[in-house]
Write a structure and sequence with these properties.
globular; 16% strand; 2 domains; 7-stranded mixed beta sheet; Rossmann fold; binds 5-S-methyl-1-O-phosphono-5-thio-D-ribulose; alpha/beta; single chain; 354 residues; Four Helix Bundle (Hemerythrin (Met), subunit A)
Length: 354
Amino acid sequence: MDFKSKIKTIEWIKDKNVSRMVDQLVVPYEYKLVDISTSDDMYDAIKTMIVRGAPAIGIAGAHGMALAALEIASKTQNSDEFLTQLRKKAEYLKSSRPTAVNLMWAVDKQFDHIKNSGKTVDEMVQMLIEHGIKLENEDIEINKKIGDYGAELVPKKGATILTHCNAGALATVGYGTALGVVRSAFAKDNTVQVFADETRPRQQGARITTFELVMDNIPVTLITDGMSGYFMEKGMIDMVVVGADRIAANGDTANKIGTYNLAIVANYHNVPFYIAAPLSTIDTSIESGKEIPIEERSHEEVTHINGKSICAEGVKVINPGFDVTPASLIKGIITEKGVLYPPYNESIKKAFAL
Ligand code: MRU
């Protein structure tokens, strides 16, 4: 499908050696591109969520490694020293956000790509730039495959698909995972529609998902997070598809806070609940969701909306950014290698072997 918005969330600009990204802090009020030219600025861009969404921050990490390599190469041409300093930068970049494993995956992939290459420092810098661009391009291809596999699961013509947070073009390099499924489904049947959860506290659903879908003329209705049960009870939701930040070897899945509630409500109402994610989101080094580190975010995200306090001063606050949906509530995991079904320990292993 050739979708109209043509969003490219993050892109390496070769003649400037910068990473150009959509500033997601100002969407939907503005659509502004920013150039990130140092690895420290890349760390900040990921941490402050100028770039967000698991696959997109993975590519940001990959570009961050290329920027770090350029910086280190301007100080040393000694390969061992270069690799030692780059390894430190890799750890630093990976510490910018803890939950989405795509960040660790992409940064490690970059380091592994050069560590035993035996090339000169300048050659390794070029290798990192080219490899970052390759990962960037592959992301869109992977999302299109996820979209096409997911579109096959839409249960009826004119279906209503509910999603949470933003797992769209702006959470990836382009096309999206959960919204990739929506885009592919809509290409086959233009009576498909979306219900988008607002997604408190940062409102990625209201700000970003609705922005993308309205731009693509895909019908979308915004609801608040607590409304999903109401609409499911009325038979108005046919399918739930969300993205993921990290999937354990047993299929337990971390995604934006509120996803777990949604999965419970969907299961109660027999509405199929799917995860759409690339294999790079699956962390086979951990057995279950209990091992997934959950990011604790600023309390102001909860106490304030658009800079204005919405609660009594001094109230206690807690703000985990993600929750873990147990595998037992997930009907299938839609990946670029096809749809994985329970038992996930086995289907995940098979998908990696393909
Ligand atoms: O905190 P965010 O906005 O980075 O969280 C994003 C999500 O939870 C997405 O659903 C997830 O990264 C999947 S993106 C394809």
